[in-house]
């Protein structure tokens, strides 16, 4: 009788685990799609409740710590400490709840929901399928609106921001590293052909976003990939990629794909620090000069009291600094996550933020360095390192560390840490008990 009860409990636990995985599959598929907030909430909180009930019922929860708990806690505390001085307490509180607590919850939810290596790979396959549909819609939207391939007449944004492109570019730079490194991980020729085709589709869909920050992010990713390939002694691949990068750069420069960056006069660093923001912007600023002017406004404000927090939240910048002189070039956000964090939380907040993302890099680098080239840990660690390089370069030119981009970042990190860290640790503990 007891054996039957244990078997029933085991079957129920497996069903709950499958249900949680299905919800996470839905979530990773719809994250880049606009107007899906209700489905996202369902797909995030349903598996959370299911897993809590499962662990409460089975009494088999084991906390396998990562290297991220202390940075997460420190950043959470520094964000909470900004509430008393925030220019908008309710906005800061809402941002802490939605843009800090929720992504961390999603990281641990993904981290503990994955019960075997194939679960993590399944979520990545769903991500790839979503990127295909997203890219195909970008092509359709691009042609429908008269887009041209080598001049910026329309910026395709897929199912996220048609006509904008910025968030779509971030999405593609997050997906493509997992496609690229998959070419070295899979052995089946047809799987390699499929990954190659999907990588090409994503590259073309990325191209028609015409986002310059994304282009720089791709460039940094390619440099990192070449370095990793050289360290693996894959000389032919590194040479091919280098030739590809140089050729594409030449084509982009020849066709003036960087828009006003080809003609804009950028002040030297010394001139920039001495100029008032209004002079940097001019009377009719380009998007590049707007960013430079906004960054100068933020830097000037930070320099008044470097340790003063204006309140956690990307959208408090405009509320704090906008006036009659600068309102024509001030956006709600700083369009630079790093300057934005220093503005919101003070220099101390920026230091903790850099510590946190540095820990992400260090942990993934450590797993990559220890891994074999063709195993799952090698694949995931290389993909995460490349993805993070592009993500943070994008965030140097925009405030993308929020909303669906941040949730996808934390979900991918959770997948990687579950497969690279938690599952091997649990296996080791199980062997020790036997």
UniProtKB/TrEMBL annotation:
It comes from the Bacteria. The keyword Membrane applies. The chain crosses the membrane at residues 16-33, 39-56, 68-84, 96-114, 121-140, 169-186, 193-209, 236-253, 338-365, 377-393, 405-423. Residues 198-354 form the O-antigen ligase-related domain. Keywords: Membrane, Transmembrane, Transmembrane helix. It is a multi-pass membrane protein. It is found in: Membrane. One of its GO terms (cellular component) is membrane. InterPro entries: O-antigen_ligase-rel_domated, WaaL-like. It holds the Pfam family Wzy_C. This is O-Antigen Polymerase family protein. It comes from Dissulfurispira thermophila. The lineage of its organism: Bacteria, Pseudomonadati, Nitrospirota, Thermodesulfovibrionia, Thermodesulfovibrionales.
């Amino acid at each position: 009788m007891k054996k039957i009860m244990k078997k029933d409990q085991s079957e129920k636990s497996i069903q709950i685990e499958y249900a949680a995985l299905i919800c996470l599959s839905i979530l990773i598929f719809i994250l880049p799609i606009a107007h899906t907030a209700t489905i996202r909430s369902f797909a995030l909180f349903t598996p959370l409740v299911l897993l809590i009930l499962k662990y409460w019922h089975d009494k088999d929860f084991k906390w396998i710590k990562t290297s991220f708990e202390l940075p997460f806690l420190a950043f959470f505390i520094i964000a909470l400490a900004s509430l008393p001085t925030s220019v908008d307490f309710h906005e800061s509180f809402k941002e802490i709840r939605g843009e800090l607590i929720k992504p961390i919850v999603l990281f641990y939810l993904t981290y503990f929901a994955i019960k075997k290596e194939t679960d993590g790979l399944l979520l990545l396959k769903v991500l790839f399928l979503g990127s295909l549909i997203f890219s195909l819609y970008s092509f359709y939207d691009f042609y429908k609106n008269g887009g041209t391939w080598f001049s910026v007449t329309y910026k395709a944004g897929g199912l996220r921001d048609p006509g904008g492109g910025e968030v779509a570019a971030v999405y593609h730079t997050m997906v493509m590293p997992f496609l690229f490194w998959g070419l070295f991980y899979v052995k089946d020729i047809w799987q390699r052909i499929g990954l190659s085709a999907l990588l090409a589709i994503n590259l073309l869909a990325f191209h028609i976003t015409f986002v310059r920050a994304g282009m720089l992010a791709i460039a940094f990713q390619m440099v990192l990939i070449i370095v990793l390939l050289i360290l693996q002694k894959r000389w032919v691949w590194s040479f091919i990629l280098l030739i590809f990068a140089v050729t594409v750069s030449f084509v982009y420069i020849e066709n003036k794909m960087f828009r006003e960056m080809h003609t804009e006069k950028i002040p030297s660093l010394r001139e920039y620090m001495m100029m008032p923001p209004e002079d940097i912007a001019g009377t009719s600023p380009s998007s590049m000069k707007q960013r430079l002017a906004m960054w100068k406004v933020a830097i000037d404000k930070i320099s008044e009291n470097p340790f003063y927090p204006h309140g956690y939240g990307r959208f408090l910048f405009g509320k704090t600094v906008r006036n009659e002189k600068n309102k024509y070039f001030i956006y709600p956000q700083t369009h630079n996550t790093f300057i934005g964090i220093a503005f919101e939380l003070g220099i101390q907040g920026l230091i903790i933020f850099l510590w946190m993302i540095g820990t992400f890099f260090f942990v993934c680098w450590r797993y990559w360095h220890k891994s074999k080239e063709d195993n799952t840990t090698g694949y995931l660690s290389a993909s995460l390192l490349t993805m993070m390089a592009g993500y943070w370069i994008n965030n140097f030119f925009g405030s993308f560390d929020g909303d669906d981009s941040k949730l996808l970042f934390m979900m991918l990190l959770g997948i990687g840490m579950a497969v690279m860290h938690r599952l091997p640790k649990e296996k080791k503990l199980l062997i020790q008990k036997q």
